[in-house]
Amino acid sequence: MSGHSKWATTKYRKGAQDQARAKVFAKIIRQVEVAAREGGSDMSANATLRTMYAKARDASVPIDTIERAIKRGSGELEGVRYEAITYEGYAPEGVAVIVECLSDNRNRTGAEIRNLFNKNGGSMAEPGAVSWQFERKGVIVLPADHTEEEVLEVAMEAGAEDLTVEEERLVVTCAPGDLAAVRTALEEGGLAPQSAELTMVPSSTVEVSEEAGAKRVLRLIDVLDEHDDVQNVYANFDIPDDVMSAYDG
User: What number of CA atoms fall less than 13 Å from residue 56's CA on the CB side?
Assistant: First the structure.
């Protein structure tokens, strides 16, 4: 679990041990379907679909499952029509939260997300209330057994904006539209990423160093992330390693 992230994405991710594979697959497949519906099934002309396809393969989603999702999204096969919805709010301690959903029923999802905020010490906010504190970026994570110099040389030439080191990994950030190109350049250079995805990077963070407050924040993020319609949860908290470890334990 890496909720506080020194490279500032502070996107809450549950560890693989906390999620059933079927649930992970379902969320990713929804993303593939929506990308195909909004931009077409031709990956050479649909950068978002290319990114979602790579994300699905990184998660070991079978190729035939991905291809069926693309066909459903493009209308070649019948399927449920999902709508992308973003909710904004606050967790305890004044932490800003963005929740990205894909839903087949906006009213149901909105009511359920609001209820999760209210029951866990948070509150929903109006659109735009916290989103101005975040910027969408492409983020590529590599193992630290590569040197900064070799990653930097390849990544910057392909359009990357920054390279930072966090514990035992290297993190490359880029503009959303450059994610596929930077990832491809790294792979062709023999620098295989551990992950590559679009995320929301906060412009500033809220320090939550007191254990009780951190647990309240993480509990809300946790229950939001578990909701079937929720695809991504982003928050601008900064929690010390020892407090994070205690919660994870």
Answer: 27
